[in-house]
Design goal:
The structure is a single chain. The chain is mostly helical. The protein has a single domain, classed as Hemerythrin-like (Four Helix Bundle (Hemerythrin (Met), subunit A), Up-down Bundle). The protein contains six helices and no strands. Bound molecules: fe (ii) ion. Fe (ii) ion (FE2) binds next to α1, α2 and α4.
């Protein structure tokens, strides 16, 4: 298996037609691809645990921001969407905990689960609201600014670049 191989390749099929949301989803894809490299190169449990922690933090912040956007846009199915987020976060949390407790974690199984999990979030859940927001012509500018500030704060406290240095 070559390290040049891309585990999760972003294509326009994943776009929800809202640029800032697409950018955040691309970042989740990047984290997953970083995890794939760590597993392929056998970088070890400590590095992998750090990447899973980054995935968890980024996802929590992304979901919270997405929910804030849907609330601001008065999206009709907000409650259902929030519930879907809760379920996805619960799945991710269980997977991370299971990984940390297992003696011999099955990394490639974990990766294929996460790939499916991310596709389900983007194509199964988010696509449902994006049409409504785009059609309503809702401006995401104010939300975008607060979202970017929040991610900048999070990246500074988590020191993400240290995870990427090893790749
Ligand atoms: Fe999303």
């Amino acid at each position: 298996m070559s390290n040049q191989e891309v585990f999760f390749k972003w294509t326009d099929a994943y776009s929800v037609n809202i640029k800032t949301i697409d950018d955040q989803h691309k970042e989740l894809v990047n984290i997953l691809n970083r995890l794939f490299i760590a597993v392929s190169k056998r970088e070890g449990d400590k590095v992998i645990a750090g990447i899973l922690d980054a995935l968890m933090s980024y996802t929590q912040t992304h979901f919270a921001l997405e929910e804030r956007l849907l609330q601001q846009a008065k999206y009709k199915d907000f409650a259902a969407h929030k519930e879907e987020h809760r379920k996805l976060l619960d799945q991710l949390d269980r997977l991370c905990k299971k990984h940390l407790l297992e003696d011999k974690p099955i990394y490639f199984e974990m990766l294929s689960f996460l790939k499916h999990w991310l596709k389900e979030h983007i194509q199964g859940v988010d696509i449902l609201y994006s049409d409504d927001l785009v059609k309503a012509g809702f401006s995401t500018a104010a939300w975008e600014q607060s979202a970017n500030e929040e991610f900048a704060k999070m990246s500074a406290s988590k020191k993400w670049w240290e995870l990427w240095k090893a790749a």
